[in-house]
Amino acid sequence: MFVYPNPDPIALSLGPLHIRWYGLMYLVGFVTAWWLARRRATRPDSTWTTTDVDDLIFYSALGIILGGRLGWMLFYGTERILEEPFSVLRIWEGGMSFHGGLVGVLVALALFARRRGKALVDVFDFAAPLPAIGFGAGRIGNFINGELWGKPTDVPWAVVVDGVPLHPSQLYEAALEGLVLFVILWWFTSTPRPRWAPSGLFLLCYGVFRFAVEFVRVPDANRGYLLLDWVTMGQLLSLPMILAGLWMLAIAYRRHEPSGNYR
């Protein structure tokens, strides 16, 4: 066990401007996704251009930030948005929903696909391995902010917060939803796969990882357990992802349609 060091959430101060670690984690995610996507786009068999990638990341960033913040407010912070409507703009304080961000980025990718004349499923499949590193970085930002702790525990790797040993559930998610998810999807998409398969695997893996971590993560105080004293909002939102992922994988390997991302 080790004692939580209470790191300063502000990485750098320039007069009245405060740059927070949490915001820098989003920058890490976007830059990494851009670099990875450009690497894939430069493959000889790719139908993507570097210009496509630049626009893809721009659209995705808007979708993630707007959808993630609005999703958190609707799913977890309804009371706060009623009290302080403009708090929806203060993303540097934390409070971003993955599930809201997913909806936001799906809408953004749909707009991108329409503008570029690409099949929507091909855009989803191309983007599937790109956000995982950003997910992991975001969870590290949660750890630095001292939020989203797990339940009390006596495991050797517990983090002592205010004298209580807790599961570092943020780090569990950083490992599973970040590193492990990236390794699986980057390997899987390194060779051409049927349409729908990369997107289905993304939804399945993320849903399973998030559902599992919720067993040791403390639910938001204003939501608590929603069913049977153990089902959380995160699990309810992840279950449709798991089912959708299984359905998409089944469709992919039944139809065996070639991906439009390769010549």
Q: Can you summarize this structure?
A:
This protein is mainly α and 263 residues long.
Characterization of the model:
By secondary structure, this protein is mostly helical. It has one domain. Helices cover 59% and strands 6% of the residues. It has 9 helices and 5 strands; from the N terminus they run E-E-E-H-H-H-H-H-H-E-E-H-H-H. The chain has helices spanning 21-41, 50-75, 78-83, 98-116, 120-127, 132-145, 169-188, 197-213, 233-255, and strands spanning 2-3, 10-14, 17-20, 159-161, 164-166. The strands form 2 sheets. A 3-stranded mixed sheet has the order 1-4-5, with no helix packed on it. Strand 2 and strand 3 (17-20) form a beta hairpin. Helix 6 (132-145) packs antiparallel against helix 7. The longest helix is centred in the first third of the chain and has 26 residues, at 50-75. The radius of gyration is 19 Å and the shape is globular. The termini are far apart. The model has no long low-confidence stretch (mean pLDDT 88).
How would the blueprint of this fold be written?
Layout: E1 2-3, E2 10-14, E3 17-20, H1 21-41, H2 50-75, H3 78-83, H4 98-116, H5 120-127, H6 132-145, E4 159-161, E5 164-166, H7 169-188, H8 197-213, H9 233-255
Parallel strand pairs: 1-4
Antiparallel strand pairs: 2-3, 4-5
Offer a few descriptive terms.
single chain; 263 residues; mainly alpha; 9 helices
| C-alpha-based Rg, rounded | 19 Å
Strand elements, count: 5
Q: Helicity level, as a percent range?
A: 55-70%
Number of structural units classed as domains: 1
Distance between the termini: 52 Å
Q: What is the subunit organization of this protein?
A: single chain
Strand content: 5-15%
The string of secondary-structure elements, in order, is: EEEHHHHHHEEHHH
Largest sheet: 3 strands, mixed
